């Protein structure tokens, strides 16, 4: 690889790294269930895999394209989709 191409590649990686780290940190926010109960699904509007209660904490990994669903991980390690409106505002 030529030195100019290597330099351009390193600059591009250096510029992309902070954005990647910020997106990862933002995606892994911990939130609390605010409604009396919440249902965890295997896919948005899929099969029920767990029931959660108010005050349980979950780690939000990402949101669906329509922003109605959140992919979460419970304290017990269960991964599933939860209606985003069931979470407390940050």
Task: Walk me through this protein's architecture.
The protein is elongated and about 60 Å long. The chain is built from one helix and six strands; from the N terminus they run αββββββ. It is an alpha+beta fold and 90 residues long. Strands 1-4-5-6-2-3 form a six-stranded antiparallel β-sheet. A hairpin with a 4-residue loop joins β5 and β6 (79-83). The longest helix is centred in the N-terminal third of the chain and has 25 residues, at 3-27. 12% of the residues are buried. The N and C termini lie far apart (47 Å).
Mean pLDDT metric: 84
Q: What is the CATH class name of the domain at 27-86?
A: Mainly Beta
In which order are the strands of the major sheet placed? 1-4-5-6-2-3
Q: Give the terminus-to-terminus CA distance.
A: 47 Å
CATH fold field value of the domain at 27-86: SH3 type barrels
Element order: H for helix, E for strand:
HEEEEEE
Rg of Cα set: 18 Å
Number of continuous helical runs: 1
Backbone structural class: alpha+beta
Uncertain regions spanning at least 5 consecutive residues: none
Main sheet: strands, sense, barrel? 6 strands, antiparallel
Structural shape: elongated
Look at the structure and name the CATH superfamily of the domain at 27-86.
SH3 Domains
User: Helix coverage percent of residues?
Assistant: 25-40%
Percent strand equals: 35-45%
- Give me the count of strands: 6
Could you list some keywords that capture this structure?
90 residues
Brief synopsis:
It contains one helix and six strands. It has 90 residues and is an alpha+beta fold.
């Amino acid at each position: 690889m030529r030195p100019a191409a290597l330099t351009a590649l390193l600059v591009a990686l250096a510029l992309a790294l902070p954005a990647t780290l910020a997106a990862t940190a933002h995606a892994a926010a911990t939130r609390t269930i605010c409604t009396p109960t919440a249902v965890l699904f295997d896919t948005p509007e899929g099969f029920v895999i767990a029931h959660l209660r108010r005050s349980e904490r979950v780690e939000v990994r990402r949101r669906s394209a329509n922003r109605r669903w959140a992919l979460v991980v419970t304290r017990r390690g269960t991964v599933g989709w939860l209606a985003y409106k069931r979470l407390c505002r940050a």
